[in-house]
TrEMBL record:
Basic and acidic residues biased stretches: 1-12, 81-98
Region Disordered: start-end pairs: 1-99, 454-480
Record-given protein name: Uncharacterized protein
Organism: Mycena indigotica
Acidic residues: bias regions: 462-473
Biased composition (Low complexity): 13-28
Basic residues composition-biased segments: 43-65
Length: 480
């Protein structure tokens, strides 16, 4: 700043009193007082220009249909959950828990019956069971009345045995039979869980049966190709007529369309051993409904090597490789939802899936195969061979509920110490070993248990023999 400027600044500051107003002239050396923030201050003018500019910008943007003005949006606050919301969450968790309690019921106890009525019938039978009749199925020359009594007796026993399985899965279920609204809701949720689990298994077995048949037919040493009677065809190739070997269509794993009697392989498996599937006339009569599909439940799909002897129907019965494979897919695979347990939250879904035990372990099979699980699997396998679009009890003259009861009675309705009871016991032991050795860890555990038991009893036998020898030596030394 020059000397002239300094003098002017000194003169103005010395001559003006403190309360006087600013000078009216404009000078580049005069500093205005903007403490009052008047409208003429630079800061205010800048704010006005910024505000006008922002308004113009917002107005131009707001013309666009995709524009959202977020400048005046209030900050988000954590939403507090109301009591009503909390109660709904707790109710949903309770309902989910009840539904999961029922997931093992169809697998181990009963296939079709409504659960509440089933429990009522079981408790009614328990109050008034049949006494010893003095005759059984092996008694000769039974009258029609006696046969009907045996049938009713067996029906009550079957229902009560199923009830015991349900009570093991759902403790205290007998106390729910009071007809109240709460009891009806409880059994509705329980039955929903049971039916949902059955539907999942139906889809699993539908896919498994198709994949098993397709894979078997693709091999050179196929065991199912004997059922395929598709005629050969002729094609023109390079001006020559070539005979092409007929093959049954490949099955779609996701749908049952194209199966049943229309498909040679599934048709041969789902027919009785009484019908010779290799005869063209038999196949034609079955497809035209001139022959009954099920004169009995001895279907080829349930036999070892898919072949049965009409004169010895129990030979190889229920030893089908497809049946064993289906049982393993249902009960030895890791559960997608824990059977009969309340839902839990997992941090790592992949880790939780790997740690989930198989269904057989959750349901407490303890290394044994319950007979009703075999009956359950057999019915699902037979249904997967059909071309029925939806799950139902009856189709093509076959009643799946009666079939299930037949398999259950095959295992449970036997006279003790009879030859039939011995055969059934051997069949159950075969299933225990077959399913235990199917998995590496299970096979190791099974063999370990067998080896340990054999070693224990071997040592006990040796100890008993040594003790008997010592007693004999003592008696000889004592003499007469």
């Amino acid at each position: 700043m020059s000397n002239r400027g300094r003098s002017i600044e000194r003169r103005s500051s010395s001559t003006l009193p403190p309360s006087s107003s600013p000078p009216s002239w404009s000078s580049p050396y005069h500093h205005r007082d903007y403490s009052s923030r008047s409208s003429r201050s630079p800061t205010s003018r800048h704010r006005q220009r910024s505000y006008s500019r922002s308004r113009r910008t917002r107005s131009s943007r707001s013309r666009s249909p995709h524009y959202r003005d977020t400048s005046r949006r209030q900050p988000l606050r954590p939403r507090s959950r109301s009591r009503e919301h909390s109660s709904n969450v707790s109710v949903n968790k309770k309902e989910d828990s009840i539904s999961r309690l029922g997931r093992g019921i169809r697998k181990t106890a009963v296939l079709f019956d409504p659960l509440q009525l089933y429990i009522v019938d079981a408790l009614a039978y328990a109050k008034n069971p049949y006494s010893d009749l003095g005759y059984d199925r092996l008694t000769k020359n039974l009258t029609v009345e006696e046969q009907n009594i045996l049938t009713d007796k067996r029906k009550g026993e079957r229902i009560y045995e199923g009830y015991l399985q349900i009570a093991r899965l759902v403790p205290g279920i007998d106390k729910r039979i009071d007809g109240s609204t709460g009891a009806k809701a409880f059994f509705a949720l329980l039955q929903k869980g049971a039916n949902d689990a059955r539907s999942e298994n139906v889809r699993t077995i539908t896919r498994l049966v198709a994949e098993h048949i397709n894979m078997d037919l693709s091999r050179q040493s196929s065991t199912l190709r004997k059922f395929d009677h598709t005629p050969n065809t002729f094609e023109q190739r390079n001006d020559r007529e070539v005979e092409v070997i007929g093959r049954a269509p490949i099955l779609n794993p996701t749908t049952r369309s194209g199966r049943g009697l229309a498909h040679d392989v599934t048709g041969g498996l789902c027919t009785s051993i009484n019908h010779d599937w290799s005869e063209e006339s038999i196949r034609r009569d079955l497809r035209d409904n001139k022959l009954g599909l099920a004169p009995n439940y001895f279907f080829r799909v349930f036999y070892a090597n898919y072949h049965g002897n009409v004169k010895k129907v129990e030979e190889g019965f229920l030893k089908s490789p497809l049946l064993v494979k289906a049982w393993l897919a249902i009960f030895m695979a890791s559960s997608d939802q824990d059977e009969n347990t309340a839902p839990t939250r997992c941090k790592d879904a992949q880790e939780a899936t790997s740690k989930r035990p198989p269904v057989a372990e959750i349901l407490g099979f303890d290394g044994h195969v319950p007979p009703r699980t075999i009956a359950y699997t057999a019915v699902l396998v037979y249904f997967a061979l059909s071309d029925v679009s939806q799950w139902r009890r009856k189709f093509n003259g076959v009643d799946l509920d009666h079939m299930y009861n037949f398999f259950v009675d095959y295992f449970e309705d036997n006279i003790p110490s009879s030859k039939a009871a011995k055969r059934v016991g051997e069949l159950q032991a075969w299933w225990d070993k077959k399913t235990a050795t199917a998995d590496g860890a299970a096979a190791t555990a099974y063999e370990t248990a067998i080896t340990t038991t054999q070693s224990l009893w071997q040592q006990r036998m040796e100890e008993e023999e040594d003790q008997q020898e010592e007693q004999g030596d003592t008696e000889q030394a004592a003499g007469p």
